[in-house]
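can u do me a favor
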């Protein structure tokens, strides 16, 4: 069975507009199919909805809403939804902290200035710029949406203001949360195989997985013996774990998807593997159902300090950081999509872009979803 989502014959010209998310100023970026809310400070993708979805189900992690649900404080600061960690991913050294550098880099804490926006035919675009004063870098991000498509195209660059080459850490901290993320309802797939659990020293105390152990996704080793299927969310939830997986080196483009089987909704990413060779998964499953799972694609296998990452050098013979040359720029490009899935579509075996479409396959059910995706990746 094939499901092809229709392209409207004519669509209105939608514009970017001022918005708000959890009292935080945001910019709404939309077409006739979807609406994305981007925070003005830090540039996080806070909300993504399909316009014809009566429930307006947002797959993105919202710590403030989960804190209200559990009647407890939010302990994740400014983190929300899909935010970018650059330059830095993980904790800082004591010297970096003393110099004013915080964990997960500066970009998601800085004000983002809109430098360009407009429309070119059936494609809308908007660009932001943020200066990172401690590391002395400039980050820019451009988003594009095309009329009739359920895809957001994301292109970014990082500029070195200094006159020497430097190792950088860059991760796209895509994070899904409850209620989209729920035990028995949500499954995660990705074009990964070789993985390793994050090194730990008895923290967090409720971790399920063996520390620093290699495995093949999705079957991971449990501390208590046996194994866990990481596609699934444990039921009942009561754990926190972290893994690093290598995106399939045989593919130019890697994919990451999350399906809510009950609502039959899927969030997905397609990324350039040479720019984002690693997928980290942060699996935060407290018993109060304030669930979150990071689908974090980037330059390093674990959320550790810059010094630790550089000393690691490589894992599985693949670099754990990226070089930013003196007075130069490097860039990345990926796309994000959000769509319904047909009944019985329960696993993603492949996502590829061909002939102006995303082709998403569940081989067991012999079903294929085709989404219009006209801009190249």
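np, heres the sequence
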């Amino acid at each position: 069975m094939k499901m092809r989502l229709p392209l409207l014959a004519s669509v209105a010209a939608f514009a970017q507009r001022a918005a708000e998310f959890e009292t935080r100023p945001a910019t709404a970026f939309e077409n006739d199919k979807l609406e994305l809310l981007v925070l003005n400070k830090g540039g996080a993708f806070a909300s993504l909805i399909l316009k014809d979805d009566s429930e307006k189900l947002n797959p993105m992690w919202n710590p403030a809403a989960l804190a209200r649900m559990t009647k407890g404080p939010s302990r994740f600061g400014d983190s929300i939804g899909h935010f970018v960690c650059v330059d830095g991913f993980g904790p800082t050294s004591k010297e970096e902290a003393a110099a004013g550098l915080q964990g997960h880099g500066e970009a998601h804490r800085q004000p983002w200035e809109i430098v360009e926006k407009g429309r070119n035919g059936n494609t809308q675009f908007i660009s932001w710029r943020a200066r990172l004063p401690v590391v002395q870098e400039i980050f820019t991000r451009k988003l594009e949406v095309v009329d009739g498509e359920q895809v957001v195209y994301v292109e970014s660059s990082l500029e070195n203001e200094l006159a020497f080459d430097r190792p950088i850490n860059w991760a796209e901290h895509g994070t899904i949360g409850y209620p989209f993320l729920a035990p028995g309802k949500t499954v995660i797939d990705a074009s990964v195989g070789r993985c390793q659990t994050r090194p730990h020293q008895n923290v967090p105390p409720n971790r399920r997985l063996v520390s620093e152990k290699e495995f093949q996704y999705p079957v991971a080793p449990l501390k208590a013996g046996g194994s866990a299927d990481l596609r699934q969310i444990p039921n009942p939830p009561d754990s926190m774990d972290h893994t690093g997986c290598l995106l399939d080196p045989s593919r130019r483009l890697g994919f990451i998807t999350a399906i809510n089987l009950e609502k039959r909704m899927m969030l997905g990413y397609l990324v350039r593997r040479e720019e984002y060779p690693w997928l980290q998964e942060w699996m935060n499953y407290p018993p109060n159902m304030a669930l979150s799972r990071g689908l974090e694609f980037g330059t390093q296998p674990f959320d550790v300090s810059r010094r630790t990452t550089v000393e690691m050098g490589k894992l599985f013979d693949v670099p754990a950081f990226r070089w930013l040359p003196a007075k130069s720029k490097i860039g990345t490009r990926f796309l994000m999509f959000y769509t319904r899935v047909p009944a019985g579509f329960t696993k993603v075996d492949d996502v590829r872009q061909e002939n102006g479409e995303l082709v998403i396959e569940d081989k067991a059910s012999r079903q294929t979803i085709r989404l219009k995706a006209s801009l190249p990746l």
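Confidence is low (pLDDT under 50) at residues 5-11. hope that helps!!
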